[in-house]
Amino acid sequence: MYLDLLRVYHETVQRGSIRAAAEILNVAPSSVSRVVAELERRIGTRLLDRSVGGVIPTHAGRIVAEYARKVVLEYQSLCSDLNDARGMKGVLIRIAVVEGMVWESAMMPLAKLKRDYDGLVFRVDVLPPSEIGPALKRGDSDVGITLCHQADPELTVAASVPDPIRLITPVGHPLLGRGPVTMREVAQYSLGLIHETGGLRRLIDQAALDENVRLEPVLESSSVAALRSFVLLGGGVSLLNERTVEMDRRRGVIQICPVASEPLEFATIDVIKLRTRRLSKILFKLIDDICAGLKDVKLPFYADAVSAQSPLL
Fold first, then answer.
1. Which residues contact 143 (CB under 8 A, 6 or more apart)?
2. Residue 59 domain flag
3. Domain named HTH lysR-type: which ranges (predicted)?
4. What is the pTM of this model?
5. What domain range includes position 149?
C-alpha cells in the first residue's frame, strides 16, 4: 500500500537517517531500507543519497518528501474525523509544549477531557520553544503550546492568550516595591535570559534596544526551569512570561515586577498548528479549554487594555 511506503519514507526524511526512522517506527533498519528501495523502484528514480552521517533527499526525493508529508498528515486528519464520528476510544492526542507551560492551569483541560471522553490517550512532549514548530511539521504533534510564536508560513496560530514578560526576582529584591522598573535598572543585576532566537528573546532584545541598554546575562539557557531555579536559588533575576512563574509567585518563593517597556507587554502564549492540518472537534475543544484555563489565571500586574499583537511577531 502506497500509504505505508510514504509513511516510512516521510519518517526517514524527517529524521535524517534510516536508523532513527526505524526507532520511531519500531522496526529494523533493514525493513526501512527495503521500503525506501521499493518506493524508489515504483517511482523509477533515486530518492535518497546515503552517507555516513545519514540520508539526504535528492531533488526528486524532496518533491516526494513534500507529497508524503501531505499524505501522512491528511491521513491523520481523516482518522481524527472518523474518530469524532464513531467515538473517542483509543484516540491519541499529541501535544508539544514548552516546559514553562507544564503546570496546573495549562494541563487541567487534559484531565477534564479525559473525564468527558474516557477513551482519550494523551502524549505531552516538553520541548524548547525552537522545537515546537518542527515537531508539528514532522507530524510528531497535533498542536503546540509555545511562547511568543514567530510567524511561519507553514504554521498558524489557533489561539493566543496575552502573557506579559515580567522581571522575576528572589523575595525581597531591592528593585521591588517602587513600581515598574526600567531595562536600565534590570541590566545592573545578575541576569538570566532565555537563550533562543524566537519571539520571547526578540521582545526582550527590542525592549533593551528601545532604552539603548546592553544586556550582558550571566546565564543563558533554553530551559525556563533553569532560569526559574537560577532566581529561586538567589543567583540573580530573569525576564519571563508572567504565567510561567505564577505558581511560584503564589507559593511566595519568588516575586515579580512589571517593566516599563511596551514590547514586553505584547508577549503571548500561543497554541499553534500546521496550516494544512485539519483539526478534529476534540482538538478544537481542547484548544478552547486550554485558553479558558489560562485566562482564568488572574495576573496581578496585567492590564486588560493590553491585548494588541506585536508587529514583531
1. 95, 96, 136, 158, 271, 272, 273, 279, 283, 286, 287
2. yes
3. 1-58
4. 0.70
5. 86-162+267-295
